[in-house]
Amino acid sequence: MSRVILKAAAIAAVFALSGGVAAVLTPALASDEVFVNDQGVAIRGYDPVSYFKGAGLPGKPEFASKHQGATYYFASAENKVTFEANPAAYTPQFGGYCALGTAYGGKFRTDPSTGKVVDGKLYFNKNPDVAKSWNKDIPGYIAKANSKWPKVIGKSIDGG
Hints:
Keywords: Signal. With 160 residues, the protein is of the alpha+beta class. It has 7 helices and 6 strands; from the N terminus they run H-E-H-E-E-E-H-H-H-E-E-H-H.
C-alpha cells in the first residue's frame, strides 16, 4: 500500500474518532519529497548553509532544525540561525534528489559531496560521475528538471 493511501487512511481514522471534526486530505505532504535517511535527516547530515559559504560541511546533531518534516543538521549555531530565518533559501532543489535524474524524470538518492550552488539555489547529484555530466549543461538540465519535477513528485526512488 502506498504511503499516500496509508496517510489518507490514518487521517480518515482520526477524522472518524474525533467525532467528524473537519480534516483536509492532501495526496502527499511536502516532507514526502525531501530526500532523508532512515532517521529523517536531510542531505545525509550535511549543513545546507555551508554550501552557500563555499563548501559542504557535515552538520552536528546538537545544531538541528526541522523543516517540512525533515531534520537538517548544521555545522554551527550561526548556520542554524541563518537557516531558520529563511529555510526556503537554503533547502536543496528537487527535495535534495539528483538534479540530473530529475531532468530525466527519475528520483535518485544523492551524495553530499556533489552539492553545488547555482544562481543562489542548492543542487545535488547521485554521485561525482553524474555531477560531471550535469556540469556539462547546468542551465539546460535545470530547465529540464524544473519542467519534470511535477511529474517526479510522488514517484518511488529509482535507485541508490
